[in-house]
């Protein structure tokens, strides 16, 4: 076979966690390498994409879905969870209650999403160490118990953000996804009407 | 007190579109639904949720649904099925497709082609001869009829042009079948196909103005995205698309609150109270679904069957339309329409299909006609699927297309009369209900009531209704999804982020120029 030596796969990643724990900021740091102190909520696009190199030959592209605030009243649609390959459940290390909410979201994911979903727990706002309410060891032992990846991150400084996404990428079934040939035929591309008419209906 | 510019109650498709359109215009929107799911009366629900839906309908006198009956086999996992309460298909050349494109909501959806439109007549199922080639090569059509059909097809593509108007204006409000007979000498057998199968018009007396619009839409839809006229969204239709618009609205800044009922409305103080006691003010308008029922209704029968129904689908496809025109089911006066979805539609499991039958015929007559149609479908698909069934292919069954012989729907073309199935078709679930239309009656200046019909299995009229409500709120529909989206992704595989680097990659705003689709004028009814 004449397959190229590079592996490429695309995965859907969903964000979850209480409002104001920094979900969107994490994504912005990862995708645009920027941080906006006064960001109110959520990114303005349908979803963002970013690629990471897992190793020399392996590229993973994330299609990242933000909650767009629909988590606030538990109003996320089935569409949100569907076909999600991985999830980042975010809490705020300076808010003990946010870890409890994160645990509830993990349960919700296990109920709604694919069984094989890769879940990472991210304790954000590591830059606010002096206000810390959640011990690293507490979150770590919960993550171990629940089978989650665990990182403490700072969207503000960028610490551990790329490591978080790369860590997820390494856990994903890249071979299985890459062998599907990329990109998976997704159906009719509505952004591209076919220029020539496919039938004689219009030129009679 | 919480305050929004506009509060929308109910997340049915039209409300969801309006909510998204407003939020992208910078209007602050609170969107509330009493159900724990999106989509309201056009939701897509799992069978598990359908069970709860049946119960809540029976306990809700204000529900637009009644006569709800459900059977579910004990041997299936009800969470693995998606049922549309009011399924629809999308024509390629339609204002709805334009909306999915301009709103970018198509990015949340997976859209698949739908080619096969079958007509039931005289105990036969025929694949529709809908293109010039089909008509030329169909040996069952006489030369005169061929000429008439082709002449009509040329006419209908430009029926709104000045020179064409005199041909049909006198017939504008008369049944289209009369017009086809009088002006084009097209027999009812063929006009049935044009009107009911291509046009998907439900009623016997479809006026010529509507019929022409719909037939033209089918014909202009061929070839827009490929050689198929229609499409459908995976995982469900309007309910799935409503979720997409609500997500779009949320990204635009709207607030969504499911499972919250409005317990009271006070137009004088412009405020509502939710069932948890929260008091919320609206500065401009409140949009609420009307509960006043009109006289029209649609009766539905949904069946999940243990048969993949592949013989009805086009190659590589997993959906089809079957139409029973008036006069084919022991004297039915309205057409029975049927949408068939296979497992690839993600609505059911492999080896199964979901059948959605509907009619606008009322009462016991409508019920009987749906049951009759179901019987016909059942014996047809059993015959199709019987592998050792003797098929004699005669020369007439073979047509030539581009020099290649094609067997034209042979088994579909054979009479069902003599067929005695050896097996029975297994019904995994069956759901029946009647849905009443609701009529929008004015309540107060700052309250906009919204009615619903759901009689159409296409998305015709949805955009119009959404624009109308949008205009009632903002004063005009000029800014309806008139949005410059920041274009943040797409086709940027070239640039790869190296591990360990935090360099900024590809956040350029390359808005891919999208060619405008314009196909004739909007429907005038």
From TrEMBL, chain A:
- Asked if the Swiss-Prot or TrEMBL record annotates the protein with the keyword Cell membrane, the reply is yes
The keyword Membrane is assigned to this record:
yes
Q: Which Pfam families match?
A: Ras (PF00071)
Gene3D superfamilies found in the cross-reference section: P-loop containing nucleotide triphosphate hydrolases
Q: Which InterPro entries match?
A: P-loop_NTPase, Small_GTP-bd, Small_GTPase
Kindly give the membrane topology term recorded for this protein. Answer: Lipid-anchor
Q: Name one GO biological process term.
A: endosomal vesicle fusion
Q: What is its main location?
A: membrane
Report the locations given in the UniProt record: Cell membrane
Its keywords, alphabetically, are:
Cell membrane, GTP-binding, Lipoprotein, Membrane, Nucleotide-binding, Prenylation, Protein transport, Transport
Region of interest (Disordered), ranges: 183-204
Compositionally biased region (Polar residues): 193-204
Gene Ontology cellular-component terms for this entry are: early endosome membrane; plasma membrane
- Superkingdom: Eukaryota
Q: Which PANTHER family match?
A: PTHR47978
Q: Quote the protein name from its UniProt record.
A: GTP-binding protein ypt5
Which source organism does the UniProt entry give? Answer: Tortispora caseinolytica NRRL Y-17796
Lineage, opening ranks: Eukaryota, Fungi, Dikarya, Ascomycota, Saccharomycotina
TrEMBL record, chain B:
GO BP field: endoplasmic reticulum to Golgi vesicle-mediated transport; protein targeting to membrane; small GTPase-mediated signal transduction
Gene Ontology MF term list: GDP-dissociation inhibitor activity; Rab geranylgeranyltransferase activity; small GTPase binding
Q: Low complexity bias located where? A: 503-512
Q: Where is this region: Disordered?
A: 487-525
- Pfam families recorded for this chain? GDI (PF00996)
Domain of life of the organism encoding this protein: Eukaryota
What the entry lists under InterPro entries is as follows: FAD/NAD-bd_sf (IPR036188), GDP_dissociation_inhibitor (IPR018203), Mrs6 (IPR017230)
From which residue to which does any coiled coil extend?
none
Might you report a single GO cellular component term? Rab-protein geranylgeranyltransferase complex
Q: Describe the family membership recorded for this protein in Swiss-Prot or TrEMBL.
A: Belongs to the Rab GDI family.
Q: What is this protein called?
A: Rab proteins geranylgeranyltransferase
Task: State the organism of origin.
Answer: Tortispora caseinolytica NRRL Y-17796
